[in-house]
Specification:
Helix content of chain C: over 70%
Mean pLDDT of chain B: 83
Shape of chain B: flat
Strand content of chain C: under 5%
Number of strands of chain B: 0
Order of helices and strands of chain B: HHHHHH
Distance between the termini of chain B: 53 Å
Number of helices of chain B: 6
Low-confidence stretches of chain B: 219-233
Chains: A mainly alpha (about 40), B mainly alpha (about 230), C mainly alpha (about 220)
Strand content of chain B: under 5%
Number of domains of chain C: 1
Structural class of chain B: mainly alpha
Distance between the termini of chain C: 26 Å
Radius of gyration of chain C: 18 Å
Oligomer: heterotrimer
Helix content of chain B: over 70%
Largest sheet of chain B: none
Largest interface: B-C, 34 and 42 residues
Order of helices and strands of chain C: HHHHHHHH
Low-confidence stretches of chain C: none
Chain lengths: ~40, ~230, ~220
């Protein structure tokens, strides 16, 4: 691999981490607000 | 009422952050010049440094929340501290991974025991532990207390970790000469990264609050622990 | 002040007397630490190796695990039969309770080191004669820092189900700088003959003071029956 490919790899990894975290937070947040205050609830 | 406002502000904030992130990524790809000795891999620096700075900010937020929890004993502070610790670990992971990839390209090795790499690794470990111990403590008050004390001690540990890693031999680049475009791009990267960190902390915080609201009645049932943990056989 | 000192010596002696009568902790810990040293010596191809650094690193592993066990046990004594509730009711400053626990833990850790260090030195053919005083000083200062943090978290985790495992998880990352500094300082001392007056020892002392002060302050909040 050359320097450019390493740079792309680094940004890909970073964006996957950030995107994954943001996506998970968003899903979790909408699940919790939708299911109201009850425990469980699909 | 509050949630209606949040329902508008939240997505708008998210979209703005995303657009800014896209913009600075564009700046990084097309506008900044290629560094001669390292090549394109030097461009990793634009995300590496803002992520590192924001890691410290997140760790500081954990510290403040821990102190406030110890003073006030409000679950609010515990939830915010937990959210900040999650984001600190996320950002520290980015710092570590981008640093390792850069090192593989520039030094030819994924890992070198240099001061800064060792420092980031220990920092990462410190806050991963904060997250990992939480599920194994049953009582929510005990969990908050242990995490608050740990949050204070861990943050106090950070400067010592930094000074101790300085005893290791160093080959990390300290300053690199930057063209004006590079400097401006680097500064620009701080904006979406800081917004991202703040946004993620707030979102995680809201998740924590909602989860606590959902589980609190169940939690309160096993709260009075008058019986000491005697069965330690 | 004299009252505090009297309380501290009284509580420390109480813990040590319990230990002397039961001898539950120290035997267990010493055997565990010797086992760790033996396992690592065998794993590393029966010693020899690179001398200085290997021996100190392996001794550290033994001290760390032995230490966690000691901190956990001396705190568990208080949990049994609700002894802690009685202790908290007594007109004794919480800081004194912390200091007493710390002293008891330190005495036990030094006892552990007294047995394990010769074993490690023997197995790894580590030449201590270069600077025995320096070695003892660095290890003692490091152990004070480790025990300061360990005593605090032992009090916090003793009421949880996972006590020991949790304690190790909390204390190890925080003590990493101590391990790093002390192995570095010892490597410099034994391999390059540099004096101890450098920044390393000062850093260790700074670690000790900082966490002693922090634990003293926080301990008040931490001890809840």
């Amino acid at each position: 691999m050359n320097a450019t490919q390493y740079a792309i790899l680094a940004y890909a990894v970073s964006f996957i981490l950030i995107g994954g975290f943001a996506m998970w937070s968003w899903l979790e947040h909408s699940r919790l607000t939708r299911s109201g205050r009850g425990r469980g609830g699909f | 009422m509050k949630s209606a406002r949040v329902r508008i502000v939240g997505p708008v904030y998210g979209i703005v952050t995303f657009c800014l992130l896209a913009a600075v990524t564009g700046m990084m790809v097309w506008w900044t010049p290629r560094e001669e000795t390292m090549g394109d891999v030097q461009k990793v620096f634009y995300i590496h440094l803002p992520a590192a700075i924001n890691t410290f900010v997140a760790c500081f937020v954990v510290f403040i929340c821990s102190v406030m929890y110890l003073l006030q004993r409000r679950s609010w502070w515990d939830d915010l501290g937990f959210a900040a610790a999650k984001v600190a670990v996320l950002l520290a992971s980015i710092v570590l991974l981008t640093g390792m990839i850069w090192g593989r390209s520039a030094w030819g090795a994924w890992w070198q025991w240099t001061p800064r790499l060792t420092f980031s690794l220990i920092l990462w470990l410190l806050y991963v532990v904060y997250l990992m111990i939480r599920p194994s403590i049953e009582s929510s008050q005990r969990r908050a207390l242990i995490c608050a004390v740990y949050g204070v001690i861990a943050f106090m540990d950070v400067p010592l970790v930094w000074l101790s890693t300085k005893l290791l031999p160093d080959i990390h680049p300290k300053t690199i000469s930057m063209a004006p475009e590079m400097r401006l791009t680097l500064l620009a990267w701080f904006v979406p990264m800081t917004m991202l960190a703040a946004g993620l902390i707030v979102t995680s915080m809201r998740i924590n609050r909602l989860q606590r609201a959902a589980s609190e009645p169940a939690e309160e049932l096993d709260e009075p622990r008058l019986v000491p943990a005697g069965g330690q056989a | 002040m004299t009252r505090a000192i009297r309380h501290i010596t009284m509580l420390t002696l109480k813990d040590l007397r319990i230990e002397a009568r039961g001898r539950q902790t120290i035997g267990l810990v010493v055997v565990l630490a010797v086992l760790i040293v033996v396992v690592l010596a065998l794993g590393l191809g029966s010693g020899g190796g690179s001398g200085g650094l290997t021996a100190t690193a392996i001794l550290w592993v033994a001290y760390l695990f032995g230490g966690v066990l000691i901190f956990e046990k001396t705190m568990a004594v208080e949990r049994h039969d609700d002894a802690l509730a009685g202790l908290l009711l007594a007109p004794i400053d919480r800081g004194s309770i912390y200091a007493a626990k710390l002293l008891a833990n330190l005495v036990l850790m030094f006892a552990l080191a007294l047995v394990v260090t010769p074993v490690g030195i023997m197995f790894f053919q580590f030449d201590l004669s270069v600077a025995p005083g320096g070695f003892a000083l660095v290890m003692a200062v490091s152990m004070i820092g480790y025990a300061a943090v360990g005593t605090l978290f032992a009090a916090l985790t003793s009421s949880t189900r996972l006590a020991g495992g949790l304690l190790a998880m909390l204390v190890f990352p925080i003590t990493l700088p101590v391990v790093l500094i002390s192995t570095r300082v010892l490597a410099n001392l034994f391999e390059h003959g540099t004096s101890l007056a450098g920044s390393g020892l000062a850093l260790l002392i700074a670690f000790d003071l900082m966490f002693l002060a922090a634990s003293w302050l926080v301990f008040d909040v931490v001890l809840e029956a």
